[in-house]
Amino acid sequence: MGKGMISLETSGNFKKTTAYFNKLKQDHILSVLNRYGSRGVSALANATPVDSGETATSWYYTVEVTDGRYLIIFHNRHNQSGANVAILLQYGHGTRNGGYVIGRDYINPSIQPIFEQIKKDVWKEVSSA
C-alpha cells in the first residue's frame, strides 16, 4: 500500500444500523401524525353542532402503520340507540315521528385545512431531502 493510502475492510451487513435509522424515521413520522391528530380532534370538536356537547367532546384519533403506510383515523365515540351521532349530524337522519333532520357537512370543512397543512409539510420535507 502506498504512502497516504487508507484501506478499509468490512464484513457483515448493516441490518442493525438500517433498522435503527428506520426506527428514527418512523418515530419522527408518528410524532408529526400525532401532532396533526390532535389538531384534527380540536378542529372537529369546534365544528361539531352542539346540543349537549357530548358529540363534540367524543372525538379522538388513532395512528396506524400498515405495510409502510401511515394513517390518521378520526373517530367519534358518541352513540345513541346504536347509531353514531356524529354521522347522523353529518348526513341527516329520520326521527321517531316520521320527520327528517337534514345533515350538515361540518366534518369535511373542519378537517380539510388540517389535510392541506399535512400536504404542505410533507412536500417541504420531501423536497428538502
Summarize the structure.
This protein has 3 helices and 6 strands, in the order αββββαββα. The protein has helices at residues 15-47, 85-91, 107-128, and strands spanning 59-66, 69-76, 79-80, 83-84, 92-94, 100-102.
- Please bin the fraction of helical residues: 40-55%
Number of strands: 6
Low-pLDDT regions: none
- DSSP helical segment count: 3
Characterize the biggest β-sheet. Answer: 2 strands, antiparallel
Trace the largest sheet across and list its strands: 1-2
Strand content: 15-25%
Total count of domains: 1
Secondary-structure element series: HEEEEHEEH
Instruction: Write down the overall mean pLDDT.
Output: 86
Q: Any idea what the radius of gyration is?
A: 24 Å
Note the gap between the termini: 38 Å
Class derived from helix and strand content: alpha+beta
Q: Using the alpha-carbon principal axes, give the shape.
A: elongated
